[in-house]
Each structure stands twice: as structure tokens, then as C-alpha cells.
Amino acid sequence: MIIDKETCIGCQMCQPYCPMGSISYQSAEGKCAIDLDECVECGICLRPQVCPTGALQQQELDEMRNLRRTFSNPLVPHKTTSVPGRGTEEMKTNDVTGRFKRGHAGVAVELGRPGTGTRFRDVEKVAMAVAPIGVTFEQQNPVTALMVDTATGKMQDAILGEKVLSAIVEFDVVIEKLEAALTAIKNVAPQLDTVFSLDLASRMSEDNTVPTADLARKVGFIPSYNGKTNVGLGRPLAKGV
Amino acid sequence: MTHSLHRHGTVENLREDYVVFAIAAQTVNAKGKAPVFGEFFKIVNKYKPVFCGDMKTGNVLAVGLDAIADGHQDNSIVHAVYTDKNTVAQVLNELRQADLGLSIVVSGLLDHVDTCCGQAGLKRHTIEHSLGIHGNTKRLPKDQVLEISTMCGHGMVAFNLITHMVDEIKAGKKTPVQAADELAAQCHCGIVNPARAAKLLQLMAG
Lengths: 241, 206
What we know:
The structure holds two protein chains of two kinds.
Chain A: E1 2-3, E2 23-26, E3 31-34, E4 56-57, H1 63-72, H2 94-97, E5 104-111, E6 118-119, H3 120-130, E7 136-137, H4 142-145, E8 147-149, E9 154-155, E10 163-164, E11 167-174, H5 175-188, E12 195-203, H6 213-219, E13 226-230
Antiparallel strand pairs in A: 1-4, 2-3, 5-11, 5-12, 6-10, 7-11, 8-9
Helix pairs in contact in A: 3-5, 5-6
Chain B: H1 11-14, E1 18-23, H2 34-46, E2 51-54, E3 58-59, H3 60-63, H4 65-70, E4 77-82, H5 85-98, E5 103-109, H6 110-119, E6 126-135, H7 143-149, H8 159-170, H9 176-185, H10 194-205
Antiparallel strand pairs in B: 1-4, 1-5, 2-3, 2-4
Helix pairs in contact in B: 5-6, 8-9, 8-10, 9-10
């Protein structure tokens, strides 16, 4: 996103809408400007149409700016998922897809959430921390598509400095390795410049208990009292999960 | 991974915050589901949600109910927000009877949602826990700002916009309800809870 200097009147109406705080007022000019290194091309400033003069403008995006946009603007579906947003269907459709089976857990590390954004170098740190555990990165997740080696979690060097609103390292792991994977996440956390929200998905046991919650507590993560529940109404039901 | 999982809050204020949504599996049962999302949307609206939307068209404040109803696609994700568990149980019961074949997910207090499932004759299939926010948490704002901003998991509600709205309320330029609607309008999917947000804004504005 850019601000046209000719039409900007410096009213600063757009400033609070930017989740990255990348719009600043240039007092010498009496105009606003966008720091393109911090801007993630989410389009949030443009949509509410708060600019009285139309100075906010979507510039033509090159490959790297488009990468920022697809990870930051939830109105843009990723090619790998067909679903808008940065994640996948994950547990939302697990009743139909059987993605997470009993004996397995789904883990997602949502880097940059909430509200801070992330560079891909932080995404790579997390991916490389969990890869040696023997996790299976979600093939449909767009972050996985940017890895040069899913065995190591190494990502493309050219994108490491790019900033996006959020990016999600998502994987399946057998329950026997869940403790090691969560420990790896806990250990890499202090090395990050950004924050992450951590998700743990699991198929319910036959007796309506959650098989993974105690393993998370053992590592020192406290499962929240709120969360998401797939109530099993999707059809056809996945078999063998 | 998910846009509705990490709703920050206390047990007390999360008692008034539930999101019910429908999605189809793109590789299994999505083909031809656009009109079925319309049936889902009719059902959830019978129970007067405080907010709603479809990821493919936008939220009710931004585009209106008719545009949402007319715009469902096979890869829609359609949402409705409620403020009490009894209504959620009724919605789930009607959705069970309607047998739409869409995957239905509820975000909210897990124990309460389990109770709702039981009342609706359903058994929980899969659970997702939030294990919290970690990393460089010094970059986070105070809890009350987080409680509002995390209602939109896609990050459309900027921390700065929330504090700006608090200033607007303090200055008498907006009521808490108007400020909450302004914040909710930014959430394309329609999963912010404006009723809960208005209460939080009122507290923040003193």
C-alpha cells in the first residue's frame, strides 16, 4: 500500500487502522507515509474507506509484495488451500477428512498472532526446531510450500526477511512424539522476535475425553478453558479415525 | 490454523461469547454446497446472532444480510456469534435435525460447548485447544486490548484502533456500542462479538 503525497492532506484518519503501525505522520511535509518494510499488504487501511481524499492506493505488487499480501489479506485464497486465510481446514473438517486420527495430534504455531506480524526468519526457526522430531508438515499449508526441505524445515532464503501479518507452521505428530515437539517449541520461543499463538488439535477419545491435554500440561503449556469443538455433523463421516 | 481459537478473556466474559460456523471440506464434499450454506445461514439467523458473516462476502455490518445470503459459494465459511450457551444448544439441535452435511464448529468455553452438544444429541468429534500466546510477549498490549483484538483471529482489528476507539469514547465522540460496531466492521468473517466488545470498551474508557 502506498500513500499518494499529492492527495494526502495529513489528517491521520488512516493511522489507527494499520495493524502493523506502519503509517506515520511526517510533520515536515504535513503528510502521512507508509514504511513499506513494515507494511504487510493486508489492505486493512483501504477497506474502511476512511481516507477522505483517496490518497491510500494499492500499488502494483511484485512477487515478494504479493507473498506478503497472500499471507496477510484474508480475502485472498491461497492456491494450496482454496480457502481464504492463512491456515487450512485443519480440525474444522476433521469429521469429514479424517486429517487428525486417534493416536495423533495436530499442532499449529501461529507466528505473528496476535497483532504483531512475523518475518519468515522466525517461521523458519520454529519449523527447523520441530522438524527433527519427525513431524509431518501439513502439505496444504502455504508455509510448507515455501520450505526447500520438509525434512529440515529450511525455508527459501529469498523470503526470510519478508514480513507478513501471520504465518502458520502446521503439522501432524504421533502422540508419542507430542511431548518432544511441544518441548522444541517451548525452547525456540525465546529466540523469536515475534509472538505466536499455539494450537493443539486432537480427535476425541471414545469416552469423550481429550487425550493430549495432559501432555501439554507436562511440558508447561496450560490448555485454555475455551477452544474449538467440531461437533461431528459433517457428511460423509471419515472412516477409520 | 484458526481464526476463532485464541479468544483471550476471563471465564466470566467468555460465558457471553460463542461462535458457530459451517465449512465444507474442499477435497471431499464442497462441490455444490453453496445453497446448503444458505440453509445454514437461515437457521443461525433464526436465533438472532449478535454478529454474522461469510468469509466470501463479508460481515453483516459491512455488506448487509441480503448480500451475505446471496453470495454463498462452495468454499464459504459462514459464521454466527451468540452470547449464551442455551441459544447455542438450540442452534445445534436444529442443525442436527437439518442434517446439512456441512462440518459445524463451535468456539467457546469447552465445558459449555460439551454441555450444548449433549443437549443437542451430539457427541464431540474433535477438539482444538489454545495453548496460549508465547515468544516475545513484551510486544503485546494490555489484556483488555487483547480481549477485543483476538476476537478477530485474522488480525483485522488493530491494537491501535482499539485504543483510538477508547479515546473516542472518552472524548464523547462515540458510544461504546458505536465504537464496538466500528471495530467489528473490520472483521471480514463476522466473528467479533460486538456486545462483549462494547462492555470491554466501556470498562477501558472508565
